[in-house]
Specification:
binds zinc ion, alpha+beta, single chain, about 400 residues, six-stranded mixed beta sheet
Length: about 400
């Protein structure tokens, strides 16, 4: 039932209560201790202004990319916590114990003498400073809002830095190098914003690549949403993500393709300078759904909706349809390899290893000669092509001409 409540700010509002009398009373009491939605919003906006002014005084840029108040507030709050934790961390690195700490897994600390420890302390400070500088360049409110920093928890904090470093190795290394040379020349910002030839929106899509995912951060924008969907990206709470699977290939390749697609659709892109250059130059392997992967003792031949492909894959010895793919026994590896070659399939590392193993086993069985085995498939590429041609389909008519 609905009841009127006087909030602590003095405003009156209506809330929905239910349950037993004691529970209803508790709900009313709890609501009256709080403030109304409008006052809460005012308070949050004031807090954002306060944090923004404070952080601007430190030379930090305004957070952008979200019109949600709680996201922007969370962003400023977390960036403040991050900054404090980072200062604390850098001081610790520079201190007497600095040489015993590791900012990143890649840095091996624990020098065995004072000289080595001093070296690692210096390296740690350099790296921590570079990571700090790089992270503070990120202006996405969503990014900061989702960044959980617990100031007291050094283990979690170093893990955060370590992860950031492994995801942005080239950027950080470049920044450390620049800091080391220390000749005062300004470092070229490796993150740039590329403008499309024919802009369709003013919103900028920010691309961050991790080993597992290509992330797209942006304000809510229909043009970007449509492009993200087209790129098979999924909304993952605070960003559009293209997650790594057995069929996506290298994430850097996917990032270049994502950038090229966004630009071609008239969307400005903020990303690593080199990634953008490669994307514009078309230096990437386009995504293909055509993959041979491995699962247990089977090879998996994925389909892409092409009927001809379905019928030729179906002919693979022992092939069983399994919803969107064919499961083929490893013993048919030779046929699968031929099929892959003719149809421009990619073979995953795992499938490659499985096929290699099957080949080895075949050789061994033949060499030992004690076990009677079926003669290996002697079919040549030509035979397989003939088979394919006999299956007479339109795609294959093209092949005949060539
Ligand atoms: Zn109020």
């Amino acid at each position: 039932m609905k009841v009127d409540v006087t909030y602590s700010c003095g405003h009156v509002g209506e809330i929905e209560v239910y349950g037993e009398r004691s529970k209803r009373e508790w709900m009313i009491r709890r609501a009256s201790e709080g403030i109304c939605e409008e006052c809460q919003l005012k308070q949050d906006l004031a807090r954002i202004e306060e944090l923004k002014t404070e952080q601007e005084a430190l030379g930090l840029p305004e957070l952008t990319g979200s019109d949600k108040v709680y996201v922007r507030k969370g962003g400023y709050v977390h960036r403040k916590t991050f900054l404090a934790a980072m200062e604390n961390f850098i001081a610790m690195c520079a201190g007497t114990e600095g040489g015993r700490m590791a900012v990143c897994r890649e840095l091996k600390p624990f020098g065995s003498n004072d000289e080595q420890r001093a070296y690692y302390a210096k390296k740690n400070v350099q790296m921590a400073k570079a990571i700090k500088e790089a992270m503070l360049r990120i202006t996405s409110a969503s990014y900061w809002n989702s960044l959980m920093v617990v100031e007291q928890d050094m283990i979690d904090f170093t893990r955060l830095l370590s992860d950031y470093y492994s995801e942005n190795k080239s950027l950080i290394d470049q920044m450390i190098k620049a800091a080391e040379s220390g000749d005062g020349t300004p470092v070229e910002d490796p993150i740039i914003t590329a403008e499309p030839d024919d802009p369709k929106t003013t919103s900028v899509a920010e691309i961050v690549v991790t080993e597992e995912c290509v992330r797209l951060y942006s304000p809510k924008d229909d043009t970007i949403i449509e492009a993200a969907r087209k790129l098979r990206m999924q909304w993952l709470k605070s960003y559009w993500g293209l997650s790594k699977t057995v069929r996506t290939g290298d994430m850097m390749e996917r990032a270049r393709e994502v950038i090229a697609t966004l630009l071609s659709r008239g969307i400005p892109v903020k990303a690593d300078r080199e990634l953008i250059a490669d994307a514009i130059a078309g230096k990437y392997e386009p995504y293909t759904p055509r993959w041979v992967t491995a699962r247990g003792d089977s090879l998996i031949v994925w389909l892409d909706g092409n009927d001809d492909l379905y019928y030729s894959a179906k002919k693979l010895k022992g092939a069983e349809y399994d919803g969107g793919c064919f499961r083929v026994p490893l013993t048919s590896w030779r046929e699968v390899a031929d099929f892959a070659r003719f149809n421009n399939y990619k073979i995953s590392d795992k499938a490659e290893a499985s096929m290699e193993r099957a080949k080895e086993e075949e050789h061994q069985r033949m060499a030992v000669g004690t076990v009677k085995v079926k003669a290996p498939d002697k079919r040549t590429e030509k035979d397989t092509l003939k088979d394919l041609l006999n299956s007479s389909t339109e795609v294959l008519d093209d092949l005949k001409d060539s």
